[in-house]
Target: Family 1 glycosylhydrolase
Amino acid sequence: MLKKKQFGSNFIWGTAMSAFQNEGWATADGKGESIWDKFTSGSKLIKNQDQIGNASNFYKDYNQDISLAASLNFNVFRFSISWSRIFPEGIGQINKKGVDFYHQVIDSCLNNGLTPWITLYHWDLPQKLEDRGGWTNRAIIDWFSNYVDFCTKEFGSKVKHWIVINEPMSFTGLGYYNAYHAPAKSGLNNFLKAAHHVTLCNAIGGRITRENVSDAQIGMALSCSNVKAVDKRSINKRAASRVEALLNRFFIEPALGLGYPSDHIPGLSLILKYFEEGDEELIKFDFDFIGLQYYFRVVTKFSLFPPVLFATEIPPKDRTKNLNAMNLEVHPKGLSKVLNFYNQYHGIKKIILTESGVCYPDQIINGEVNDTKRLRYHQKILKEILKAKKKGIPVDGYLIWTLVDNFEWREGFSPRFGLVHNNFNTQERIIKQSGYWFQEFLK
Model:
């Protein structure tokens, strides 16, 4: 039986959320437009043509949700800052009401006994900056540095835990390579430019935070997957190693001084044309922790497309019935492989599982949500964390995605990850069985 004490007295227990997916009120109190505001506005690309509206209303109901997290006995509340709520045009004039809002969120955390963790960038780039090239424009180093400098000086006396950039592979790949996410750019050159500038900003943002916040704990949050070849043939095993290099190595290795993993993906050497003098040193940063974000397994095989990678995923629905509501393979045991993989790197001081969760449909019966499958998923993840800790892998926390059901990017409102059910029409919250389990477990 799982017991809290097995994880140690210093283990971090929390939840994670993002500004765009939860806050709503996209134009309230002087907020500027973000790339996701534009991408979703009246869009037929969003599943069921969902319109985000006020999302889960966190902009108005933040105190209620933070109190909910405290009532479930978590000790950390991770949230992100909307860049365009602070700087409506990305740079220049500051929106005082936006600044005040995040002070209120931080104070609510502290008043409820929760340690606030801030993510500085969780995908919602100001649209005014995207109009100037966004992450493909090297000028973003200055834009981002200015934003980080302001936030860390403004909030650093009250917040000591900072994640610079959330899941760089996700938003550069989906937003700048295959146009599936905002800002809907495509092509290898757009991806490589954006990825290199993100790598630079991740490290530079870390250095700015270190300078501005005394006793700061600074991390990067990486999406990661358990990658498996479809069979033992060498051509498919090599394809899997290329996919793993892209998904699991691409952003960690530059920070550690190892450069980009062009050893497994020779085509990645094309990124060197976007280097300027000094970049090899600028992309390095000694993070205090690495945040890993684990959701699914990827099974791959050799393919002529896409070129450079020469690998493709076997669609999960063609190989397993163990799927979440987004048709991704649910595979908690794969977390062990991922933790072992990252533990091989010298220079990683500690690992926090800064996101993991699963989406299944909720059914309300007599005012209750008995989400047994979601609860079992989290219990299995906890068992994998325990196995890793017993091996000496420094896994020091688990931040659940997520507290309250929210807007899941292009998938709209359908995927429900929360420990708390949300009626998006009324904003009524119902704690699910999984939430009550954590409340008891964390006593």
User: Anything to note?
Assistant: The longest helix spans residues 188-212. The two ends are 15 Å apart (CA to CA). The first strand starts at residue 12 and ends at 16. Residues 4-441 form a domain with the TIM Barrel fold (CATH 3.20.20.80).
